[in-house]
Amino acid sequence: MRVIVISGGTDGMGRATLEARIRRGDEVVAIGSNPAKGRAVRALSGRVHFLRADLRSVAQTRRVIDTIRGRWPRVDALALFANRQSPRRVVTDEGLEQTFALYYLSRYLLSHGLRDQLDAAERPVIVNVAGVGTTRGSIHWDDLQLTRKYGMVDAQLQAGRANDLLGVDFAQRSGSRARYVLYHPGFTRSGDLSTMPPVVRGVIRAASVVARPVEKSIRPVVEWIDDPPADALTASDRGRPVPLSATTLDPAAARRLGTVTDALLTRLHAG
Ligand SMILES: NC(=O)c1ccc[n+]([C@@H]2O[C@H](COP(=O)([O-])OP(=O)(O)OC[C@H]3O[C@@H](n4cnc5c(N)ncnc54)[C@H](OP(=O)(O)O)[C@@H]3O)[C@@H](O)[C@H]2O)c1
Question: Which key words tag this protein in UniProt (predicted)?
Fold first, then answer.
């Protein structure tokens, strides 16, 4: 039985991926923050496990990684979906802007923290579902926590670009056998809009008639888990390959962000 870990496996595309993998006979470990959603996915099958964690918290993310390491010596696939929009700038107890912490940092920790478990699998793969191929947004190197100027879209785009670089850095530096796949699902009929202002929510709901069905968006993710790509790094925007020479996948920027992230995590650990 294959073991699949899904961050954000309790809703939207993560949950649909969980359901597809359960149908294929896998054991799935879903991470989410809402216990009711956790109970709902656990009720689907005895092969679903729910680990509750607020992935905005480095401490809770580390705890959930330790739990997985203790209970599952082998992880065949890690699929990263957890994200939430934040209209206002919110700072976590650990002093991090929450979009950066949830959408980027938790994925960094899970990717590197489950390395040994992934390397114990025959054909391990990590699929990071974000926005590769998008060139909008940038890394605010001098203000990663967006203290000076915050905007919801800007925070999402920065974390998206950071995930692009995470994939590049993981592939070039980790030494892991796990194939890394960066995937942009496109505008999809999923997403918890509860944190959005009512007007924005209304606009997105109205536009969702043209959004892609969840089942279509997750199909490649389900397939990569069955059959990981041969290359160390793959980038796909709605099925179209994104060339690894893209400016958003710059190896030097990836190395720089990896170094900055390690230093940040060391500082948090020391504090
Ligand atoms: N939907 C789109 O149009 C679209 C387009 C491009 C890219 N994407 C990307 O695709 C990914 C999945 O999107 P989606 O639409 O499927 O999202 P979604 O339906 O809103 O699901 C988000 C998942 O993340 C979990 N989550 C949120 N905050 C969390 C926290 N603090 N700690 C732990 N888990 C947390 C949620 O579980 P809990 O509620 O239990 O916390 C839920 O399982 C995201 O990275 C998104 O940026 C989506």
Answer: Oxidoreductase
Could you please state the CATH topology (level 3) that the domain comprising 3-270 is classified under. Rossmann fold (3.40.50)
Does the CB atom of residue 14 touch ligand 1 within 6 A?
yes
CB of 54 closer than 6 A to ligand 1? yes
Per-residue pLDDT, averaged over 200-213, amounts to 91
Evaluated on CA atoms 231, 120, 218, 156, the torsion sign reads: negative
Contact 226, 28 (CB under 8 A): no
Which pLDDT value is given to residue 28?
Answer: 98
Residue among 62, 72, 52 nearest 8 (CA): 52
For the Cβ of 57 lying below 6 angstroms from any atom of ligand 1, the answer is no
Half-sphere exposure of 83 (CA within 13 A, CB side): 25
Name 28's bridge partners.
Answer: 4, 48
Per-residue pLDDT reduced to its tens digit, 27-61: 999 999 999 999 999 999 999 999 999 999 999 99
pLDDT of 271 > 80? The answer is no
CA of 270 to the centre of ligand 1 (A): 30
- Would the CB of 34 count as within 6 Å of ligand 1? yes
